[in-house]
Amino acid sequence: MAAVTFRFPYPAAGSAAPDLVAQPVDAPTISVMDAAAERGDGAFETFGVVGGAPQAVRDHLERLRDSLAMLELPAPDLPALAEICRKIAARATGDAWLKLVVTRGGMDRAAPSAWAVLADAADTAPLRAEGIAVVTADRGFASDYAEREPWALIGAKTLSYAQNMAAIREAHRRGAGDMLWATSDGLLLEAPTSSLVVLRGSALVTPDPRLGALHGTTQRAMFRWAEAAGLETTYARLTRADLASADAAWLASSVRGAVPISRVDGSALPIDRARTEEIAAFLRARRD
């Protein structure tokens, strides 16, 4: 399936259902002065698509609503957005991803802009089997910063991803596949495009989002799997030493799923292959 994009009016409460016309992704779709292109001023969500259906719709759209509120943009009509996402996802011919974008609008900023992209997903089975090496790095703020300075948009899924992409390039320069951020006072946060989930004994643990990490939709799904499997789940303040002594750990995201971490700063970490495949099956079966 060739990647396609869909531009539509931003669905505020009571708006009519839009016509959804697919365009090639390189077709002229937005103004060069749109807030996305000019400022990175907007928010997005990326859904996994399996069997022509988007996954975790409620979790994604509620997080989008929260991100837009932090950006002081108008509240969306969530049922209308959900229906738009379902109609677009139904066009997928195999495993895919759907990226939903909302920005502050065109040059006059009179109304938000909205569009979606649908594209084939890569096969993540080899990555699940081999695992991924990560390096840790200082995110540049302390663990109380996000709560102390809410204007900074820590925890919003904004379009401003230049630093995220720079982090991944730096990880590659250091011989790793990804970077894991920590606060300046040593508490683990997240990777640039995924959440950290750690197995410690009989519990799945993830960093407390209040420290400055995005509250992951896939991480939340993993917690649901864990609870059904009889494991405990908790949000906590994790250090590098906690990760180094973990029984297993994963980077969790909508497109890649749960990828086991194989090495941290050069030191090996156990891979729980059985649980990795159980989690993968659970995540793949998700719908709304």
Main sheet summary: 9 strands, mixed
Q: List the uncertain runs.
A: none
Task: Note the beta-strand portion.
Answer: 25-35%
Could you give the order of the helices and strands?
A: EEHEEHHEEHEHHEEEEHEHEEEH
Structural class designation: alpha+beta
Helix content: 25-40%
DSSP, total strands: 15
The mean pLDDT is 95
**Overall 3D form:** globular
CATH topology of the largest domain: D-amino Acid Aminotransferase, Chain A, domain 2
- With helices defined by DSSP (H or I, 4 residues minimum), what is the helix count? 9
CATH class of the largest domain: Alpha Beta
Domains (count): 2
Measure the end-to-end span: 23 Å
CATH architecture of the largest domain: Alpha-Beta Barrel
Cα Rg:
19 Å
Give me the CATH superfamily of the largest domain.
D-amino Acid Aminotransferase, subunit A, domain 2
Question: In words, what does this structure look like?
Answer:
With 288 residues, this protein is of the alpha+beta class. The protein has nine helices and 15 strands. It folds into two domains: 4-120, Aminotransferase class 4, branched-chain amino acid transferase, N-terminal domain (D-amino Acid Aminotransferase, Chain A, domain 1), CATH 3.30.470.10; 125-284, D-amino Acid Aminotransferase, Chain A, domain 2 (Alpha-Beta Barrel). The protein has helices spanning 35-39, 57-70, 78-89, 125-130, 145-148, 162-173, 217-228, 240-244, 273-284, and strands spanning 4-7, 23-24, 42-50, 53-54, 96-103, 113-120, 132-138, 178-182, 190-191, 194-200, 203-207, 232-236, 248-253, 257-264, 267-268. Strand 9 (190-191) and strand 10 (194-200) form a beta hairpin. The relative contact order is 0.15.
